[in-house]
């Protein structure tokens, strides 16, 4: 699975941005789509997840401000970010968790990453 992220940029505090991430390749293997972020000098953290069945989870700091969603084909994931704060400044990465069976019938779990898109929240 290959992922292409877009939509980052500079926004003022309180503003909104929408990130997109398009998946291609063996998309039928995707079990969940995720958004992660990495702020300068910090470890990468999981921001939001949407499962194959459509259930969503968020890290506490973005609940009620960010919304993860996907298109009907389940190959594009979005992250709508509202009420942005300076501490949301980071490089945002999309990820696809995959589960499939190899030729020997053994389960294989893989994660693919997008290239990252920079979100800067500043006045």
Please identify the structural class as seen in this structure. mainly beta
Q: Counting H and I runs of at least 4 residues, what is the number of helices? A: 0
**Estimated radius of gyration:** 15 Å
**What kind of sheet is the major sheet?**
7 strands, mixed
Amino- and carboxy-terminal Cα gap: 37 Å
Helix content: under 10%
Report on the structure:
There is one protein chain. The chain is an all-beta fold and 123 residues long. It contains no helices and 11 strands. The chain has strands at residues 2-6, 9-11, 17-24, 30-38, 45-51, 56-58, 66-70, 76-81, 90-101, 107-113, 117-121. The strands form 2 sheets. Strands 2, 4, 5, 6, 9, 10 and 11 form a 7-stranded mixed sheet that branches. A 4-stranded antiparallel sheet has the order 1-3-8-7, with no helix packed on it. A hairpin with a 6-residue loop joins strand 4 and strand 5 (45-51). The protein is elongated and about 55 Å long. The protein starts with a strand and ends with a strand. The relative contact order is 0.32.
